[in-house]
Amino acid sequence: MQKVVKDILTDTRKKIHDAPKFTKERTEFLRDHKALATDFDALKDLIYLRESIEIKSIVNKLKKLVLEKEKKFFDVWMAYLNDDIQDLA
Questions:
Q1: Per-residue pLDDT tens for 54-83?
Q2: What does pTM read for this prediction?
Q3: CB 81 within 8 A of CB 58
């Protein structure tokens, strides 16, 4: 799982990660749509939307703990982000 997340974060930083861009209208549609369980494209978009939220969460935690609080990257990755890594993977 750690390798998968490392690759996702690396590809995101290099802007080569395959993730759709969500417009405000598409996000509102996903939030308000009643038949999501039968709409394959909406379900796929929800998965990508959650992935983008998880990526932002991990990046923000890394910035806060490593850059601002000056904790060692290895310690943060192994101890503080374990659940986040599993969620994203």
A1: 999 999 999 999 999 999 999 999 999 999
A2: 0.80
A3: yes
